[in-house]
Amino acid sequence: MPPILNVTDLRKSYPDGFEALKGIDLQIDAGEILALLGPNGAGKTTLISTICGIATATSGTVTVGGHDTIKDFRAARAMIGLVPQEINLEPFEKVISTVNFSRGLFGKPANPALIEKILRQLSLWDKRDSQIRALSGGMKRRVLIAKALSHEPRVLFLDEPTAGVDVELRRDMWEIVADLKRDGVTIILTTHYIEEAEAIADRIGVIADGKILLVEDKAKLMARMGKKELEVQLSQPITEIPASLVSDRLRLSDDGTALIYSYDTQSERTGITTLLSDVAAAGLVLRDVVTRQSSLEDVFVDLVHEGETR
Questions:
Q1: Domains and CATH numbers, the chain
Q2: Which pTM value belongs to this model?
Q3: How high is the mean pLDDT of the chain?
Q4: Which helix (H) or strand (E) holds 284?
């Protein structure tokens, strides 16, 4: 089955010569969740805006469900729902009227049962007759999602959907995304919260300086690039690593109470056995040994750093 979203050599330049997108290639399958990570100014929002037709590409092609976003804009855009970063809602309008209006903008006939389902799914049904101005920031973000879902899109873009909301509401949003996935909606999520990507994404994309550095299955990415650290806790602090133990894979903790050893989980030999023997031979007494897996945040920082130094 062909990907539901296909981006080929997409470029976006501005009159002053700034190139925001530098030949983006991206394929996303139906029903998956892709988390797009990147620092501020990386091109995340520009990429989404270009795919959705808000910004015009300088060159390249985008198809959604086989529809070219330039040659067949209406059909392509009808398949897309967009939840923007900024909350821009009519403050005096009622929730249900706002959502119904968004559905009508796409030429869809009234469907009260569907709108009720969406509002209930987003815990907005009890607020349906409330004016937007009376809602909390988190509830307003839910209204944005309801508006984006009102015309039954098959591809949903969430641009920093949990920015500025508390942890509890953020986790509620993750559950909403999981429900949408079960309904077969394809979701592209941009986020600054690494734990968000770890919690809900099927694949992780990393973008920096207008270029896609990597798109990979989350578990495979962690297995391929994730490293482990062994922390050898000492019974007595030391001021420096003994000469017999000096290695570029070993460092001393700031307080001198532990030796921290980095190793690759995919290597045939980790070197841990040799290290522990050498520590004992150096006259150091162990208090405890602890291992920890590097997080997706560590992987992300490494990838962005590599991309910036290329």
A1: 5-222 (3.40.50.300), 227-293 (3.30.70)
A2: 0.75
A3: 88
A4: none
